[in-house]
Model the fold of this input.
Amino acid sequence: MTTLALKYRPRVLADLVGQDASVKALNNALLRAKASGAIHHQAFLFAGVRGTGKTSTARILARALNCAEGPTPAPCGVCDACVTSEQPDRNLDIVEIDAASRASVEDARALREQVHTRPAFCRYRVYIIDEVHMLSRQAFDALLKILEEPPPHAVFVLATTEIQDVPDTIKSRVQIFPFRLIPVGLIEARLQHVCDSEGVSAEPGSLRLVAEAGQGSMRDALTTLDRVISAGDGQILESLVREQLGIVPAIRIKGTLESLLAGDSTAILDHCAALGSQGVDWTSFWKELAIAFRDHLESVARSGTQPHEILRLSRILSLLLQRERDLRDSSLPQVVVELALITAAQLPHLAPLDALVKGVPSSPAPQSSAMATPRYQPAQEKTQFSAPTQRQLPPSATVKSAAADAGHAGAGTKAAAPAPISPLNAPLRASEELIQQEPLLGRLLEDTSGEIIEIRKSRQGS
Ligand SMILES: [Zn+2]
Done:
């Protein structure tokens, strides 16, 4: 562990961040123990991903049970038991066992004999078995025998990152406490507290990046904080954090996002070229861009903007997410990024689907009384969208076969008048022309809006 991770390791239950349910349950168990003078349950299983406080909580429990004023949820912090609870080599009554290296039957047998020894100077001898899922089957059997009839002075805390690998027989003998990934906001707040205590100034936003890099682990976040403080000579600058963590400069994310929204392919290519020359990790860039785009989409959705804009943004985001796997598999990630972004940038030029359905063209439309058409479409126009036989056409259906099908169905005949003037047709025609001029857009439509393709085929059929 690094200096900060050790220094700010939780020492009382109140220090534990993001584990409210487990903290509350342990607190209650210790309150009951305080009232009765003895802990009711003698075996606990702490389960959760690494760095979420399992081993620290095991030590906190040992301290709470053995404090001279205990058992208590609020140990004094000054008695011998409290002081030595952080140093297992000075406290014979805290036995930490790494199951990964002591998984054999002999180890388990040795433990069976050892547990009957009375504590050296504390109330309880606390056995902390880390990564307990690594025990062999025979070792689990031996452990089960111990847990079935534990001596009154022994308390067991089993910790695991893989609870599914712990036998049910063991699980049925222990109280299980889940340890969850810590939300990034809580990690950030804790990092701010650490910086304040250490007299380190941090630029706004920089601690958020450090917290995110922790991926739910406080220990990893504190380790990263140590690194960026060292690199920044005692102050934390966002640019330095990004450099240290290999995070794409914020200005590039913002610039690419703006170019994408503006449909500016030249600017998009410029950003990609600059990122490529900096040796960016394209997968990280893609992830950050998708998150930034998602945030933009949320702000638009919450502002009550017209639905077709929300739909357009959703399609772009959908495209970004679809291309993520291509990016991971490609030996030319920059090309994948450029192609996907340029393709997505063209979406603003397409007619929004809701305009097609409502009959409101996105570009100046021919004068027509149908402009006043309410949300519900006249029957003969609706048939263009709803003839069931046309909807079932395979993607490769030709105009000819679609027309033949439509002839059998008979549903599209009313709408098959020569060149009908309708606001429905204007944006549709505009989309088709674009598709013919630009094959990339046709591909994009297939990718992101099956509905429009379907409408196009229907129209060909009629
Ligand atoms: Zn104490």
